[in-house]
Amino acid sequence: MPGKTVVLGVAGGIAAYKACELLRLLQKQGMDVYVVMTRNACRFVAPLTFETLSGHPVAVDTFERPATWEVEHIALAKRADLFLIAPATANVIGKMACGIADDMLTTTVMATRAPVMIAPAMNTGMWENPATQQNIAALKARGVHVVAPATGHLACGDSGAGKLEDVQVIAGRAVQVLMRKRDMEGLRVMVTAGPTREALDPVRYISNRSSGKLGYAIARAAAQRGPQVALLTGPVAIEPPPGVHVVRFTTTQELLECAEAHVAGQDIVIQSAAPADYRAKTVAPRKIKKRDGEDMVLTLVENPDVAAALGEGKRADQTFVGFAAETNDVLEHAQAKMEKKRLDMIVANDVTAPGAGFDVDTNIVTLITRAGMTALPLLSKDEVAERILTAALALRARA
């Protein structure tokens, strides 16, 4: 990677010493590395070590007079092709998630426009703490690349998740990010995500267990590859990725209307939303009260088929991708759906399989086209998203 610059942030944890080897691995790939340290990191490894290895001054103090007259944290932020923090402590992760910039490291990373990657390292209890996990989820939603910690024996004597991932792996991931092609520039992509809600009364509604995680991962991955992205989203508890046009819907009818308003200008349409098949025939104007001992009967009517409706107007130069979340006869149901709804590809998964259901960060899917099937192993939803986009581009190349 000659000509690429990595700003390496080092936070205050025992794994800070491993950043020395990581720096050397990055240099062996031809990268120029600048180091930013927190004051606590300096208690584990002296800045002189990183200065000797990198050949550049180490930035620690926001208010220290710089060697050349420039606003140092801004200069470093602009210089970076990748901003990599390893190790990233729970404290630094929390600051980044909350937008706190109170030292050189957090100030510089907030100012950068380069891709950001973090490699967390901490005690297992700290890693599994809900606050840390919420912060990680928030950073992922903003497009931050996360190299999850490994499981093993920790310096504190505990065993579990929280060990800094092998530096070879971290360096490899850094290369992947720097080599990422903007292979979708000039295209327009529409992604639908999340569930719909069909009201029964002012309090209750019919919905499903879709979390929207995969749809948001697709929108986030697509945005990083260069196209204009429109994200049509149902009600989910996820922060939209940066750089995408967000359109919100609640009901299946609203989803159909939003999709029909946007689909004509799109090159690739990826329909990962989970619209309700039925809605209440009549919505009660007031809360339906329980009648002791009496059953309640709901009369449901069929909702419009969004994918089929969009398929009717599909142009030859458009690529449509659908999804089939099934519990039985998965491949057969998926293939039938692909043909019925004029899809070019369908992503099929068995939601009863461990690691492939709702509200998890992984999935096991099969990509089905008219040319054949590709079964993917258990992957993160971010990786599944990348595979789906690559397959959609391959379809366009063969068209």
How would you summarize this macromolecular structure in one to three sentences?
With 399 residues, the protein is α/β, with parallel strands linked by helices.
Structure description:
With 399 residues, the protein is of the alpha/beta class. The protein has two domains: 5-179, Flavin prenyltransferase-like (Rossmann fold); 188-398, Rossmann fold. Helix content is 33%, strand content 23%. It is built from 13 helices and 21 strands. It has helices spanning 18-28, 47-54, 72-79, 90-98, 104-111, 124-128, 130-141, 167-179, 213-223, 252-262, 306-312, 330-340, 381-398; strands spanning 5-10, 32-37, 82-88, 116-120, 145-146, 150-153, 159-163, 188-193, 198-199, 205-206, 228-233, 245-248, 268-271, 278-280, 300-302, 319-326, 345-350, 362-363, 366-369, 372-375, 379-380. An eight-stranded mixed β-sheet has the order 12-11-8-13-16-17-19-20, with helices on both faces. Strands 2-1-3-4-5 form a five-stranded parallel β-sheet, with helices on both faces. The chain has a two-stranded antiparallel sheet with strand order 6-7. α1 packs parallel to α2 (47-54), α3 (72-79) packs across α5 (104-111) and α9 crosses α13 (381-398). The radius of gyration is 24 Å and the shape is globular. The two termini are 33 Å apart. The model has no long low-confidence stretch (mean pLDDT 93).
